């Protein structure tokens, strides 16, 4: 019974049964402790797990492989440096270890975002299984090391480890971040061949990852095709599709998808706070001011979702883009939380579009006081752009001088592009790439052609950013 509950969705009941068992002075063994410690780990009950550790020592089961492995997992799942340190201590005391023990410690370091230590453990492992590879690849992908994640995936294939759907989800996440469409398509074909065409159930998370990958690579119709073919959808599926449409400026389709979501009636399709960020973002990009106001009220009144700062940011962006700058500023003043730089930046962007230098100056004063210099740099450039568009040259020059005095500079733009399966990284103003000269030559030709066809570049802004 303890084992059954420990492996179920109600692991806490395993601990309750153990307490009854102990009250009746029933005899316990290593398996009992293993399952109860596992239940503590799954329930997030670290203190109860530590108490079980004490009983393990008192009753002489501290050398049991299964008990020790579950103790490593208990402390590793606790996260933070202290938890992982305790896991490492138990691990070091073990005379025998199996791949499950190694995987538990590896997962602990990944959960603690210590990818370097995790990589060290991974390299030390005498044996690796698909869980080991998946943990390491997912850890890299989730912590900004996407190129390393894909390199590990290539190595995993070379050593002929069978791929499961969980590792494919992690790989697709890295592909989405890097814009690696070629590998993303390969994963899609592999999933169809190995799972879908064999009538095996495809994880919803894998389909969600495919939607995210295609959307991140700009192939919204491909993402929508995956979405339409899904036999089952969760709120993440709906939200991913809504957000994909929103980011591409396809506001009508985003809102139609949201309406469909509401009409589906499925318990798994209930909108959450992330869904409403996508909906409000769609309204902002499409300029649907009235609809944005409506959905902002609905999320509170109908769905009982309290707006987070991200929702306020979407509304401020929507109102500012549409020229309702006074309403946007009033909304900021009534927010229950302190506005962040993104919200002030949205108002500054609106000021630039609608040439409201007075409000921009007021907002910039708040930003320079509240933000550290490096984070304020981009907004100061934006303020100087507002002054330039309204021909307030002295003010624009004063902002530039202030930036020099503060010793700040706007971070250069950065982008990635995949060509023939190779991902190239570009930074604005960087001539170091092999084809740097050719790139800028083509850019000059495009600019000349645009000018010959009547396009007038915003020279004022260009001068200020340079």
From TrEMBL:
GO biological process: RNA modification
Keywords: Repeat
Lineage of origin: Eukaryota, Viridiplantae, Streptophyta, Embryophyta, Tracheophyta
GO molecular function: RNA binding
Stretches of the chain forming a coiled coil according to its record: none
Keyword Repeat assigned: yes
Keyword hit for Repeat: yes
Protein name as annotated: Pentatricopeptide repeat-containing protein
Pfam families from the UniProt entry: E_motif, PPR, PPR_2
Extent of the PPR repeats: 29-63, 98-132, 234-268
